[in-house]
Hints:
- With about 250 residues, the chain is an all-alpha fold.
- The chain contains 11 helices and 2 strands; from the N terminus they run H-H-H-E-H-H-H-H-H-H-E-H-H.
Amino acid sequence: MTEQPKTADLPEEAQQFLLGVYERAKARLETVIKRHGMRPGLSAAIAEERIAILDHEIRPVFPALEAAGTAVACAKGCGVCCTLTIDVTPDEAFALITYLDRNLPADTVAAIKARAVAADARGHGLEPLARHRLRIACPVQDPVTMACLGHAARPTPCHGYLSLDVKRCEAVHAGIGQDVPQPTAANMLTNVISHTRSYALEDGGAPRQSLELTAALLAAWAEPDAERRWLAGETVLAEAASYQAEN
Length: 247
Ligand code: SF4
């Protein structure tokens, strides 16, 4: 991953731009929360909005990178990065299973669940790099086409992860090096929008939690009432908590 500059170290113009992104995202996300209320289904509504916001804000980054001779290398069906350890928030897990359950045939969802059980058995609770070394594919990835079956509701870390060099992704995947060049502007926009969403949900009463994606999907499928309880202020899906290094 490319190391990120701190916002305070950016030129004033860039700081003002990011502040504008934050204010626009905050207004749109708060509108969704107000309209929907802290009730089940909010996660799917928030996902639709956060994906639209990030798509809109990140769009100018692509032609700018191309003009600079450093075009984004990501393409549909690549999926090399889908063996990384993905940390998500509860709403991202709820939105993804809602999307899968609503939009995919029952046998496809059953196959995703089976892959999730197998993947979780291999990687549950492992330190992210150790988990990545096992090359455990995300269960939502189609094993034939390598496409994301939940693309329209993918978590923000997946949405905002862009590579400038697919050969470096493949090298990392093969265990050679750890550095994938990424567009700093895209990373910063992703972080601003992701944090803005977390703050908005937290203001509504949903506790901040970080979960490992595969374990979170399994836990959310096993607890159909978890979204309601989380939006009401309860900590949920505790068995899927992200890896925490011991001090
Ligand atoms: S949710 Fe989709 S994009 Fe994210 S890791 Fe899984 S398959 Fe890849």
